Each structure stands twice: as C-alpha cells, then as structure tokens.
Amino acid sequence: MPMFQSLCKRDGVDGQILDLDTAVKDGVLGGVDSGFVGTTGVAEKLDLGRMIEELDLCDVPSVFICPISLEPMQDPVTLCTGQTYERSNILKWFSLGHLTCPTTMQELWDDTLTPNTTLYRLIFTWFSQKYLVMKKRSEDVQGRVLELVETLKKVKGQARVLALKELHQVVAAHATARKALLDGGGVSVVSSLLGPFTSYAVGSEVIGVLGSLNLDCESKRSLVQPAKVSLMVDILNEGSIETKINCTRLIETLIEGKDFDLEIFRSHSLLVGLMRLVKDKRHTNGIFAGLKLLRKVCSHSEVKSLLVSIGAVSQLVELLSGLEPDCLELALSILDALASVPEGRLALKDCSNAIPIMVKLLMRVSENYTKYALSILWSVCKLAPEEFSLIAVEAGLAAKLLLLIQSNCDPILKQQSAELLKLCSLNYSDTIFISKCKLTRTIQ
C-alpha cells in the first residue's frame, strides 16, 4: 500500500478515521463537483490556496501536509516510491540535483510525477467544508451586529444593557464583527450612548465595545469631548478590573490622535485612577495597561508636575522590586520622565530607597533598564552631588560604573558613567575610593 494511503488511516477528520478509499466510497467527497460549492443559493468557485491561507488551521491531518515544506498540499503528486509531495516542492528538490525520494532517500527508477487526484479532492473537500462553515458563521456574526445596533437605537434601561453586553462579547471575539460595526456606522450609535447621565452599567459596556475597535479620526473626535472623557475617568475609578483596563485602552487610543487635546486629559482624577490601577498587585494585566497609559500622558510637562504632586514618584519606586520585566521597564521610563522636571528630581532625592534601587538595576536584564536607571541617577546627582555621592557609592555604584565603562554598551552610556564616576569620587580620598570600587560588595 502506498505510504500516503497508510497515513490517511491514522488521521481523523472531524473525529472519523481518514481513509482515501473509504472516504470516496462513503461519499465524504460528495457535495463537491469539479471545485464548485453552493452557498446562499449561488455556486461559486472556491480557491484551495485562498482557503488554506484564510483558515490558517493548526489541526490539518498529516496526510495533507507536504513532507518537504510541512504545509498543506494544493497540487499533490506521487513518486514511484509511493510518497506524495506538493508538485512545486518536489520539482525544486529535483532542480537541486537530487534523484532520490526525500522521505525514504531511495534512488528513483522513474521520475514521473503522478497527480494524486483522489488526495487532492479529499484535501479540497476538507478545507472547503471548514471554509464554508467559517464563512457562514462570519455572515451570521455580521448580521447579528447590525441587528444589535438597530436594537440600541430603540431600547433603554436593562434591554439596552443586555444588547450592549452581547455586542461587547461579539466584537471582542470576532474580527468580522468589529469590521461590520465600523463599516455599518455602528460606532456613532454606540458612542452616542456616552454622556453626563449615562449609567455605570451602560457606560462600562460601551467602553468595552469601543476599546475593542480600531477607531478612525472622526470617531475619536466624537469621543474626545469633556462630558464623555469625564465619564470614562469616573468609570476608571469605580469599575471592575476588566472595565478599568478597557478604559485605559480606550483613552490610550484617543490620545494617539494628532489633534489630541491635552487639557481634556490633564485630570487629577485620571492620574489617581491610573495610580490605583498600577498599585493593584492582584492584577498584573491591569498594572501593565495602567503603566502604558501613564507613560503616554506623562510625556507632557504639565502632566508630569501633576503626577509628582499626587505622590507618584515614591509609589512607583516602591513598586519596582515586585514588577514583571515589561512593567518594570515602563515604570523606569515614567520615573525617568518625571526626573526631567524639578519637582520630580526633588521627589526622587527625598525618596530614601530610590538611589539603592537604581544602582541595583544597573546592568540588569537589558540595556534599556541601565539607560533609564543611569539617567535617573544622573538627574538626582546634579541636584545634590555631595549628598548623592555618599549614598550611591555605599550602595555599590562606583563598581557598577567601572563595569559599565568596560562593557560593550552604548558610548553615550559609557560617557555618562565616566562623568558620574568622577562626581562619586568627590567626597573620598583616592585610596578609599579605590576600595569602594572593588567588585566584591557589588557581586554580593
């Protein structure tokens, strides 16, 4: 028996044993006539390559896979050894001068390529059935989205909440639903439900829906209104963790626009809400979302000053030791941004554990960590060089700086390290400072 047939018997399609002969006899190939499949009453030509690409399945039976490319076959051909390959792949194998079967490495006594039409029909049927199911589901989802949008125009109260909940679930799960909502004008309908008298139940679902979409400039402009933004901030402070994350994602999307109005987002309540979110150690996904938005809003000096005034510096420093790497880098970048304003530098200077933590983070994980930590140390050093040098050197900074200067890091970091090392030596004699540069303590 040819190898491809024996392989067929080992793989299941929809839970059934996959055997070519049995498949043909039992009519598994039925419903396909020369590549035409009926859908919505109209016969359409289905392209196997397009179906394979759009479905992108990971559970394709191994008999459909070309042993050379490990991709589903579209034009299977069988060699004299009984092995089946994709035509283009085996021809390429031959063009490289190979006169053997790639799987068995047997020398070929005949290089004829026999089209495996039975396997092709089985592959085509398997993919077309799955493709049509996917297409039908996609059409059903799109239709349901448009129905829900029409419902939202008419209903109020609990009925509106239920319709929004379903819409939220559908758009979160299906790309076709998101496209239908955008193309069908549903965004304006959903956005109109946000206002000064919107209930928490309605607002949280609206924000969930909008946060799942790739909004265009016009949609963003309609949302960046004081009353709507104020509601988003209120829900950020009062909602569940999921709702808070949805709020941060939506606000992050809104401030990416070119006509972003800083005044609307320069809100004490927004910054307080974000700091509460990043301090909630029970939900790491919330910490990451909150830090991402904080990083974006604190690119403006007015926001930096406001963020420092609510105690963000000391709170972020306290968080550093327990953060995951991606969150830690975001937190360091925020602290570095806050160190660029006088209030931020003062807050870092007054934070007793800021310098030891920054010293510890030098040359840890990535060069970005080092860049941010060194920049923060440099900012504090310029503010109070004598006081800084004593604390920093006792924390092991001198030895770390020597390592940095000798490493393969960015030349700018090396230069900054050299200047910082010079400042560190101000309060010490040469002999004592050399002893402070020893690596033993740093390694410990």
UniProtKB/TrEMBL annotation:
A molecular-function term among this protein's GO annotations: ubiquitin protein ligase activity
UniProt entry tagged with the keyword Acyltransferase: no
Entry keyword Mitochondrion: no
InterPro entries to which the protein is assigned, alphabetical: ARM-like (IPR011989), ARM-type_fold (IPR016024), ARM_PUB (IPR058678), PUB22/23/24-like (IPR045185), RING-Ubox_PUB (IPR045210), Ubox_domain (IPR003613), Znf_RING/FYVE/PHD (IPR013083)
EC number: 2.3.2.27
Catalysed reactions listed for this entry: S-ubiquitinyl-[E2 ubiquitin-conjugating enzyme]-L-cysteine + [acceptor protein]-L-lysine = [E2 ubiquitin-conjugating enzyme]-L-cysteine + N(6)-ubiquitinyl-[acceptor protein]-L-lysine
Function: Functions as an E3 ubiquitin ligase.
PANTHER family listed in its UniProt record: U-BOX DOMAIN-CONTAINING PROTEIN 31, WDSAM1 PROTEIN
Protein name: U-box domain-containing protein
